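ok new one. same drill as before - structure tokens go in, u give me an amino acid for every spot. 81 of them this time. try not to just spam alanines like last time pls lmao
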């Protein structure tokens, strides 16, 4: 199975320059290792948050946060935990 990418981008903007934005991407894949006959499920998240502000007549973007996280879910015989 090939990896699947799911994402969401949202924010608020004043239609001029000022605003705050959040971008999250999640890669869904399977490990080669198995639990109870099913491949382990892997979710890798990458999130970034930015703000736009007017600076000397230009609109400047500034990174205010970044997060990367990996979660592995194992099949327990009934569901992934």
């Amino acid at each position: 199975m090939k990896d699947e990418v799911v994402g969401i981008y949202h924010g608020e903007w004043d239609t001029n320059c000022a605003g705050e934005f959040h971008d999250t991407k999640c890669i869904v894949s399977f490990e080669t290792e198995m639990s109870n006959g099913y491949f382990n499920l892997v979710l890798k998240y990458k999130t970034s948050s930015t703000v736009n502000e007017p600076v000397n007549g230009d609109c400047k973007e500034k990174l205010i946060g970044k997060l990367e996280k990996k979660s592995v879910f194992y099949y327990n015989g009934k569901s992934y935990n």
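The mean pLDDT is 95. and btw The CA atoms of residues 5 and 15 lie 29 Å apart.
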